[in-house]
Specification:
single chain; mainly alpha; elongated
Amino acid sequence: MSTLVEIEAAIERLPKTDFQQLREWIAERDQQNWDKQLEADVADGRLDQFAQEAIADFQAGRFKDL
């Protein structure tokens, strides 16, 4: 396996189009990881308190129309 330094050096040598593809791949991969973490947090109930607070604020009229 390559070290991070080796990977960075290889990225620096990429042609512009390959760098663009890599950047898009990394962004997509990062989004997938974020989605998985959010789904896990929801399933574990970690966001329930925030949802309850938001609903209570809405019901109490503490909100702004966007």
